[in-house]
């Protein structure tokens, strides 16, 4: 816990530093319009990051979120084109998202397949289905109300509507993870699934539920993306899964499960968005951002590892496994 | 106070059954390759009936050509996956090398084509070494490390090239010929891919290094017990994978008309699909180069068939995904059934 | 590498030689230890402790070339610790190991191998995906002129090594799918190819059938006759007497006796193993034994245990004794819904129940304190409070939100009742001693308020003082009306605590004894699958 507390302090400091750099290097940085740009372009990933945080803490991973979002976007477009009322289009997209998550969850919990492989497969599958639905066409004749939800601001405040979607969700997830018994069972599952099961935790049901929620929220993110770019295309939100996972891991969530907080993930989302924004404001080459994000992702795991290695240098790997074996001493 | 001992006869029957199941497992490895060939044959027959030109030499050549680069990377990925790791950064490595080699030849045509190729291979190996070091020395799980370098390597291409396009006419024709020439009527990339497959099939089959990759992936604990350095084998696998990405990058750079910093984006999924489809166990320890190459050829054939039949070729990605899921599900179900029946038989 | 290869070949030749002139088994045709000039291995004053547990106290052991030496003792006597020290897995805290008279330090399995020590564990560590030949020669495969592996030479060599072993597989069989007995033979073939001088086998027969044991012993005898020193650990006394030239018995981490097998009787051996007098350490208070709570009928899990039937009453402590691999924990896992039975029924309060998961078992009032505290019992990085309340957290919540003060109070209450020594209930469990960790596991299940409590080795690896506390607690729980199934490998614990004793051997119940007819010998005979001694 103390390690995490320190990690979040570090992230907060990073965020402050980034703000200072932003203010120093660009006079546009502090403007409200820039803030709403940062915020609205981050919201889809932020929404996907919520269930992703829970899934990784529970010891699994979902690589298919961006593809699910893409498929949901395609479903919205296709059903709208077919003349369905907008609300029905959106509900259908959410249901499709739930189905995507359900398939992931069933393969992982019922067949015992590794979530990494399963969701790598469905990453291709769901994106492929989106491509099949839309080919390389785009559907963009959405009603103005829908697209205003995507990039519009609340009154003259500069606060994007989508932030109003994210914030309540964040609160719900934070309460779920940090205050309820479900959250506690999730940490227990990620820490030691066997001990959790022996403590009457229904591990499989818990994971299945999480994958379904992940699918629904990915679909919601897909809807938000569709509204923001006012267009339904097969490659919407492509590659977002990497940004989402990078943000979650940088937020201090352990890839091996059992550790991390949503507050850390929030900070890391803000830091990555700010970093991308500063790079975009200062450089014509927006793709430089990916170097920064990739490096941060590696450093978030490598850093603590190296520190640990330098501190407790000598015993080495074999000794480590020895002390683990010692624990089961006796005959 | 009774201890029921099964008769000696039932025991010898059981022994025979166990030996039989060993045969069965051995057969299973062959089955995967045979299954791929059967699937391939089925597709060929079905498509040829609908569109006879599918079976023309020119079309078969086209299929193999389109598969060749993918197959080279799939061989590299196989090495890594055998050791219980994965390299998600292959597409970025291929793209980086493809772009840099072209960039180099455009700006400094006088360094010569062999030097440019060597540079490409070297860069590839270096990228692989970075991945390997992060995993073995840094202790970063392969999936996280290579997810990170997937971003970073791609970012580096953009840093070098910006949004700039390098067209075919800007590089020497000699370089383009690496991909476009056809000795004995066979496109060079096919020859290169076949050579790579043969060399690495031999390496994995007939050298201590190759066998040790299997050992490390099959049981790291047992590998340490017999004194193998797990980290060193894993590192080498990553470097070789990088090297093959470098080779694939050179071919990519030579083959396609115009290239920008987005070259080869996303092919890591097709590569992993080919490897998993080819029967390489994602948890390491088993699989062959032949299987991975067959997996790549199957995917390429499906793609070609979609085009020939004028079907929606956007199905390809969905099919790759479904193929991955089918392959791992089948593996899991078969393994589970075999294990369970073995346990019952053994302990009764 | 090449050298080892040639040696292996010679070794196998020697064996082939003996095949043609059959060796008579038994304790006759081999040099007597006294006349052997140099010991193959000497263990001198070796001590080892794990935390507070002293696993070995200054033990001595000498192994001569050409002898089979059995190492006996109850579970926890320190046999496996000594084997692990000789295998290079653990380093001794004190004392010395000598190989052929030279003092050595065995820092790794590889170093042990370099000194000619081969170890065959109960569960061999092999490469499941590779075939038998590669498992034997990994890292030192014979190579041809261009450095390529010479598969045909390797296969031929392995088949030569395997031929005299009379196995049902060959060099190209994948190890995955081989029976454990066959995997052990692969390890033996590896030892042969390495020309090992010292062969150590840790419970090699635990998962073998009688026929497989015979085959193994025939091979071991041939090795002995070629001067290999053999140390083996076993729980099956009849096998020990069939094979061993000399016997060493450990008890509580110390050596009790080393003697030629011909000087020891079965009775004397058992007495040396259990040794100690019954202590007053196990104070079972008289409890009122009530109605049947749990009834198990013909419970069977194929290949694991068969036809297990018993009744457990309110206020009763039912002891379940057996040696490693007898199937006790496996029965407990089914009773707690972790595994499913293939047939048989479980009744709670006369009603048949279907235990599909631990969560269901908890709802029905069954608690289980598992054998492996660290893997199954506790979340080590979690605080005491979260560990104690995890199973009943939904009951401590309103609208899903955990009532933290209530949680803390409840945990503190149980920590106090069980006298957990800790800075507070927010302290991480990982920082506690083994005994206190076990109290936390107990607190967890007491807080869940079960009717049936299954305790699997509840006092393993904890110090004497805490042990007494735990025994007192178990006794009090029975007085309060809990039905307790006590699984233990410690005879004194079973004899002191249990109202009735159930004994298992190889997956079957081989004895049920009332408190007044249960004694060490009777139980030990049932547990080792012997016929009952004449009264």
Overall geometry of chain B comes to globular
Principal-axis shape of chain A equals: globular
Number of domains of chain B: 1
- Number of helical stretches of at least 4 residues of chain A: 14
- Under CATH, the topology of chain A is which? ABC transporter involved in vitamin B12 uptake, BtuC
What value does the average pLDDT of chain A take? 84
Q: What Rg of chain A is obtained from the alpha carbons, in whole angstroms?
A: 21 Å
Question: Which two chains touch over the largest interface?
Answer: B-C, 49 and 49 residues
Instruction: Specify the CATH architecture of chain A.
Output: Orthogonal Bundle
Specify the structural class of chain B.
mainly alpha
The major sheet of chain A is characterized as: none
User: What is the strand content of chain B?
Assistant: under 5%
CATH top level assignment of chain A? Mainly Alpha
CATH topology of chain B: ABC transporter involved in vitamin B12 uptake, BtuC
Profile the largest sheet of chain B. Answer: none
List keywords for this structure.
heterotrimer; A: mainly alpha; ABC transporter involved in vitamin B12 uptake, BtuC; 14 helices; disordered C terminus; B: 348 residues; mainly alpha; globular; disordered N terminus
Question: Would you mind describing this structure in some detail?
Answer:
The complex is a heterotrimer of chains A (331), B (348) and C (535). Chain A has 331 residues and is mostly helical. Chain A has helices at 2-25, 32-57, 65-81, 86-109, 115-134, 144-151, 161-179, 181-191, 193-198, 203-229, 240-250, 262-282, 288-311, 316-327. Chain A has a single domain (2-306), classed as ABC transporter involved in vitamin B12 uptake, BtuC (Orthogonal Bundle). Chain A contains 14 helices and no strands. The radius of gyration of chain A is 21 Å and the shape is globular. Chain B has one domain (35-314): ABC transporter involved in vitamin B12 uptake, BtuC (Orthogonal Bundle). Chain B has helices at residues 8-50, 57-82, 90-107, 113-136, 142-161, 173-180, 188-206, 208-218, 220-225, 230-255, 267-277, 289-308, 315-347. The model of chain B is unreliable at 1-22 and 342-348 (pLDDT under 50). Chain C has 535 residues and is of the alpha/beta class. Chain C has helices spanning 2-20, 79-86, 109-114, 132-137, 151-162, 180-193, 210-225, 237-243, 266-274, 328-335, 358-363, 373-377, 384-389, 404-417, 434-447, 464-479, 491-497, 520-527; strands spanning 41-50, 53-63, 68-72, 94-99, 102-104, 117-120, 198-202, 229-233, 246-251, 254-260, 292-301, 305-313, 317-321, 343-348, 351-353, 366-369, 397-398, 401-402, 452-456, 483-488, 500-505, 508-514. Chain C has a six-stranded mixed sheet with strand order 6-7-8-3-9-10, sandwiched between helices. A six-stranded mixed sheet of chain C has the order 16-19-20-13-21-22, with helices on both faces. Residues 1-34 of chain C have low confidence and may be disordered. At the B-C interface, helix 1, helix 8, helix 9 and helix 13 of B face helix 3 and strand 22 of C.
């Amino acid at each position: 816990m103390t390690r995490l507390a320190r990690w979040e302090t570090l992230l907060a400091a990073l965020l402050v530093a980034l703000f200072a750099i932003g203010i120093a290097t660009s006079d546009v940085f502090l403007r409200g319009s820039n803030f709403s740009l940062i915020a609205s372009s981050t919201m889809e990933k932020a929404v996907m990051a919520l269930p992703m945080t829970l899934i990784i803490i529970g010891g699994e991973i979902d690589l298919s979120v961006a593809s699910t979002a893409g498929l949901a976007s395609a479903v919205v477009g296709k059903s709208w084109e077919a003349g369905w009322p907008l609300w029905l289009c959106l509900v259908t997209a959410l249901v499709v998202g739930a189905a995507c998550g359900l398939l992931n969850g069933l393969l992982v919990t019922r067949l015992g397949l590794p979530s990494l492989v399963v969701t790598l497969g469905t990453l291709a599958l769901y994106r492929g289905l989106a491509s099949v639905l839309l080919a390389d066409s785009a559907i963009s004749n959405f009603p103005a109300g829908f697209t205003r939800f995507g990039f519009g601001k609340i009154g003259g405040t500069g606060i994007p509507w989508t932030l109003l979607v994210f914030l309540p969700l964040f609160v719900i997830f934070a309460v779920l993870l940090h205050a309820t018994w479900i959250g506690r069972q999730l940490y227990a599952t990620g820490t030691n699934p066997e001990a959790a099961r022996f403590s009457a935790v229904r591990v499989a049901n818990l994971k299945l539920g999480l994958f379904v929620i992940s699918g629904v929220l990915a679909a919601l993110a897909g809807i938000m993306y569709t509204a923001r770019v006012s267009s339904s295309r097969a490659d919407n939100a492509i590659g977002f899964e990497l940004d989402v996972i990078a943000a979650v891991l940088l937020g201090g969530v352990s890839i091996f499960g059992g550790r991390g907080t949503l507050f850390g993930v929030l900070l890391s989302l803000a830091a990555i968005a700010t970093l991308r924004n500063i790079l975009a404001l200062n450089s014509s080459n927006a793709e430089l951002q990916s170097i920064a994000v990739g490096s941060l992702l590696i450093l978030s795991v490598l850093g603590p590892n190296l520190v640990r290695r330098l501190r407790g240098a000598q015993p080495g790997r074999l000794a480590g496994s020895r002390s683990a074996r010692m624990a089961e001493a006796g005959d | 106070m009774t201890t029921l001992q099964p008769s000696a006869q039932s025991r010898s029957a059981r022994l025979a059954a166990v030996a039989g199941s060993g045969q069965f497992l051995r057969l299973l490895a062959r089955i995967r390759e045979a299954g791929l060939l059967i699937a391939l044959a089925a597709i060929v027959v079905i498509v040829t009936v609908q569109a006879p030109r599918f079976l023309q030499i020119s079309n078969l050549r086209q299929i193999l050509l389109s598969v060749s680069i993918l197959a080279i990377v799939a061989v590299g990925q196989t090495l890594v996956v055998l050791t219980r790791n994965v390299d998600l950064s292959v597409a970025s490595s291929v793209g980086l090398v493809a772009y840099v080699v072209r960039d180099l030849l455009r700006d400094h045509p006088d360094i010569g084509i062999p030097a440019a190729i060597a540079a490409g291979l070297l860069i590839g190996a270096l990228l692989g070494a970075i991945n390997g070091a992060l995993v073995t020395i840094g202790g970063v799980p392969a999936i996280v490390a290579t997810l990170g370098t997937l971003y970073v390597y791609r970012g580096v291409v953009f840093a070098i090239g910006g949004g700039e396009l390098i067209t075919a006419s800007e590089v020497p024709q000699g370089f383009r010929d690496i991909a476009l020439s056809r000795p004995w009527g066979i496109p060079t990339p096919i020859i290169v891919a076949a050579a790579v497959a043969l060399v690495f099939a031999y390496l994995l089959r007939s050298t201590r290094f190759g066998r040790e990759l299997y050992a490390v992936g099959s049981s790291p604990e047992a590998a340490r017990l017999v004194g193998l350095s797990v980290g060193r084998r894993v590192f080498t696998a990553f470097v070789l994978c990088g090297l093959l990405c470098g080779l694939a990058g050179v071919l990519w750079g030579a083959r396609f008309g115009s290239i920008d910093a987005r070259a080869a984006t996303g092919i890591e999924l097709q590569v992993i699909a080919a490897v998993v489809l080819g029967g390489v166990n994602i948890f390491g320890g088993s699989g062959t180069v032949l299987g991975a190459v067959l997996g790549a050829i199957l995917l390429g054939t499906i793609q070609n068939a979609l085009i020939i039949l004028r079907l929606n070729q956007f199905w390809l990605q969905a099919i790759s995904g479904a193929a991955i899921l089918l392959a791992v599900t089948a593996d899991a179900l078969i393994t589970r059934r075999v294990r369970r029946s073995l346990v019952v038989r053994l302990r009764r | 590498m090449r050298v080892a290869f040639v040696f292996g070949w010679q070794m196998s030749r020697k064996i082939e030689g003996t095949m043609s002139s059959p060796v008579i088994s038994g304790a006759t045709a081999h040099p007597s230890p006294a006349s052997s000039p140099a010991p193959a291995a000497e263990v001198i004053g070796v001590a080892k402790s794990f935390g507070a547990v002293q696993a070995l106290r200054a033990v001595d052991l000498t192994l001569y070339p050409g002898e089979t030496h059995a190492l006996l003792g109850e579970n926890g006597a320190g046999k496996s610790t000594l084997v692990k020290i000789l295998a290079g897995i653990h380093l001794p805290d004190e004392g010395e190991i000598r190989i052929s008279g030279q003092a050595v330090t065995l820092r790794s399995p590889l170093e042990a191998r370099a000194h000619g020590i081969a170890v065959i564990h109960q569960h061999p560590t092999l490469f499941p995906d590779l075939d038998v030949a590669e498992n034997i020669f990994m890292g030192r495969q014979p190579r041809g002129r261009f450095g390529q592996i010479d598969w045909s030479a390797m296969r031929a060599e392995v088949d030569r090594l395997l031929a005299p072993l009379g196995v049902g597989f060959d060099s190209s069989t994948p190890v995955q799918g081989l029976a454990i007995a066959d995997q052990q033979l692969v390890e033996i073939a590896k030892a042969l190819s390495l020309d090992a001088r010292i062969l150590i086998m840790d419970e090699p027969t635990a998962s073998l059938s009688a026929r497989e044991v015979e085959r193994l012993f025939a091979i071991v005898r041939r090795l002995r006759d070629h001067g290999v020193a053999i140390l083996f650990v076993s729980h099956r006394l009849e096998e020990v007497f069939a094979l061993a030239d000399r016997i060493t018995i450990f008890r509580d981490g110390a050596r009790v006796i080393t003697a030629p097998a011909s000087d020891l009787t079965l009775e004397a051996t058992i007495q040396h193993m259990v040794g100690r007098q019954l202590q007053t350490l196990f104070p079972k208070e008289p409890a009122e034994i009530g109605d049947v709570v749990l009834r198990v009928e013909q419970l069977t899990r194929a290949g694991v245990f068969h036809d297990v039937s018993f009744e457990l009453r309110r206020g009763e402590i039912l002891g379940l004794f057996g040696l490693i691999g007898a199937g006790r924990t496996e029965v407990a896992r089914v009773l707690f819904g972790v595994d499913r039975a293939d047939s048989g029924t479980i009744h709670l309060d006369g009603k048949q129940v279907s235990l599909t998961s631990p969560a269901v078992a908890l709802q029905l009032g069954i608690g289980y304190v598992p054998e492996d505290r660290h893997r199954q019992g506790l979340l080590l990085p979690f605080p005491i409070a979260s560990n104690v309340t995890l199973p009943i957290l939904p009951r401590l919540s309103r609208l899903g939100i955990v009532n933290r003060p209530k949680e803390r109070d409840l945990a503190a209450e149980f920590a106090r009742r069980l006298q957990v020594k800790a800075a507070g209930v927010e302290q991480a469990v990982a920082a506690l001693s083994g005994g206190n960790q076990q109290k936390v596991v107990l607190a967890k299940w007491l807080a869940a308020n079960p009717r049936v409590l299954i305790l699997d080795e509840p006092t393993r690896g904890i110090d004497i003082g805490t042990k007494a506390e735990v025994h007192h607690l178990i006794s009090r729980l029975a007085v309060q009306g809990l039905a307790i199934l006590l699984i233990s490998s410690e005879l004194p614990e079973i004899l002191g605590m249990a109202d009735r004793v159930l004994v298992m051997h190889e997956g079957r119940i081989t004895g049920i004894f009332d408190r007044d007819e249960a004694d060490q010998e009777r139980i030990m005979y049932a547990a080792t699958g012997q016929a009952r001694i004449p009264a």
